[in-house]
Amino acid sequence: MRCLVVEDDPDIRADLQRALCAAGFSVDAVADGDSAWYQGDVEDYDAAILDLGLPRLDGLSVLRRWRSAGRSFPVIVLSARSDWTEKVEGIEAGADDYLSKPFQMGELVARVRGLMRRGAGRLSSIVAIGGLRLDTTRMSATFDGAPARLSPLEFRLLDYLAHQPGRAVSANELAEHLYGAAENGDANAIEAIVARLRRKFGAGIIATRRGFGYLLESGG
Fold first, then answer.
1. Fewer CB within 10 Å, N side or C side of the chain?
2. Which of these, 71, 12, 78, 63, lies nearest to 33 by C-alpha position?
3. Counting beta carbons within 10 angstroms of the beta carbon of residue 184, is it exposed (0 to 12), middle (13 to 18) or buried (19 or more)?
4. Across 21-50, average pLDDT
């Protein structure tokens, strides 16, 4: 899963990046509103963390531009102010959730996961794929009841496919969501990850739709 962090405070920005990366996200981060608007407009994110008090272009203006352009990824707004009118403005501008500073990183990660889970129509943090069970909260997995070892990229690939139930996802789209802007990822890398997962858990763990991409037939 790929997340955009927009925060001008370098310490908070670094803390957000560390917490989200530790939770299995691929993270891009920017420090001003102009960069945020551009990144959210040209890149495909699964969620964004957006501070309101930004230089160059304020957070509400960024959010309104994203929504006007049809960018529908979940957005959690951050603000140093607890004024309820600002919360209303954020929700009306298209925010999906709101957190006042200071906040606990664990709570923010849980809210991001909750928004993405609801967007995929899932009620639980447990993803079942045949005999494989992913716990997206604890970042752990079991296969036929025994602990299973997954690399971070393997886990993120399965997690992303589980958020696209019944839809075939191209290798290029998977690469966009597994790797951040500063990382190198392409269709060949995705094919290698899929091949490893099939060797570990059986060829049926990930199906291929020729000309369309990969999907989990039994993800849930």
1. C
2. 63
3. exposed
4. 93
The counts of H helices and E strands in the chain are 8, 11
pLDDT of residue 220: 44
- Check residue 117 and give its pLDDT: 77
Quick one: 93 exposed, middle or buried, by C-beta within 10 A (0-12, 13-18, 19+)? buried
Residue 219 in contact with residue 165, Cβ under 8 Å?
A: yes
- In the block, tokens 């500063």 appear at 182
pTM of the model as a whole: 0.71
Query: How far lies 68's CA from each of 37, 71, 94, in Å?
Result: 11, 7, 10
Which pLDDT does position 1 carry in this prediction? 82
Neighbours of 88 (CB within 10 A): 11
Neighbours of 210 (CB within 10 A): 6
Cα(19)–Cα(207) distance, rounded to whole angstroms? 32
Q: How many degrees, rounded to 5, is the angle at CA 92 between CA 88 and CA 93?
A: 115
Asked if 142 and 148 count as a contact pair (C-beta separation under 8 A), the reply is yes
Domains of the chain from N-terminus onward: 2-119 (3.40.50.2300), 126-215 (1.10.10.10)
Helix (H) or strand (E) holding 19: helix 10-22
pLDDT value at 182 more than 80: no
In DSSP notation, 138-204 reads: TTEEEETTEE----HHHHHHHHHHHTSTT--B-HHHHHHHHS-TTS---HHHHHHHHHHHHHHH-GG
